[in-house]
Hints:
- The protein is of the alpha/beta class.
- The protein has a single domain (5-15, 25-363), classed as 3-Layer(aba) Sandwich (Rossmann fold).
- It has helices spanning 20-23, 38-43, 45-48, 57-67, 111-121, 146-160, 174-186, 202-213, 219-230, 237-251, 260-267, 271-278, 317-326, 342-345, 347-363, and strands at residues 72-76, 82-88, 95-99, 124-129, 167-172, 192-196, 305-310, 330-335.
- An 8-stranded mixed beta sheet has the order 1-2-4-3-5-6-7-8, sandwiched between helices.
- The longest helix has 17 residues, at 347-363.
Amino acid sequence: MRFHPLLMLAVLPAFLLVSCANDGCCSADSHQGHVHDDAAVEDDYHATGNCALEFTAADSARRAAKHAEPGVKMVELSNGYRVFTQTVGESADVKILTLHGGPACTHEYMTVLGDVLPESQGYEVIYYDQLGSYYSDQPTEDLWTIDRWCEEVEEVRVALGLNKDNFYILGNSWGGILGMEYALRHQENLKGLIVSNMVTSIPEYAAYNEEVLRPQMDPAILDSLEAFEAAGDIQNETFLQLVDEHFYAKHLCRLEEWPEAITGSFERLNYKLYDLMQGPSEFRVGGRLIEWDITDRLGEITVPTLMVGAEYDTMDPDKMTQQANLVANGRSLHCYNGSHLCMWDDRDAFMGGVASFIEDVEAGRPMR
């Protein structure tokens, strides 16, 4: 199977999507209706915001080895915590800070960018684990707001010496949310913004899963999956295998075999933080992001922007084209053979489109 079994709860399929935005069943506030004793409250990260990972000896050894690799810089934030960054390649003009998805995945699945772009284009690529992700520090207090994450990105920018003459952001999925939100606050520091596989409205994202992706599934498979879901048996091995074969392989990554950079990144996802923000699964929205929507603010983004969509994505690729037209200076890229991780399963189209966008920004050419 492509996913580590423990991660199946973190990325569940479209048929599990419920209309949480309408009925409130999965809202962040729904957790507050339960009665907790003091011990339960201490253990409930929904109540305390304590999403800190607990590391085994093997985890600690892995983290220490990663921190010792070439190009790594642990950036100390103003709150005293440190975040992991690693630079691959060197360029005075094009420095691409990667923002991974989740929230609370790791930079590892973004390393394909560093495998390709420094050598083929001469760009500098910077990996970065956001606070609370595996290779960065683990706060025990509740720091989990978009405002704070944006300021974290700004502190990383300053620490790495990035500025309007060289600073590009490439954010995938949740990283796309963070990239757009950062631009709304600090675009004067950006040279270009690349939003990969992320629409500007969580409610629209949820509706696309429910109304478009679910009906595409084989009815017999869907009936079986819904039976498991109705029974609350979503950790059943048969259920997980059906999900893997009939949904993940089509909409998350279409490679026949998933590389360790992907599987390892998902295995090391901080699920508590993911659940707090996103909800219990990729397609069962219910966390703090449930009502997030900045569509009506896209016109405020004036920095050159590339919106990347993919034919088989969990996000509506047509929305990515619309978003490119809503920002002041935008362009869209459609990866016809790709899915949510089109940087992997439609690599040539993705890398070529990103390079073309950056070349035009560097040359001062218009986006449209």
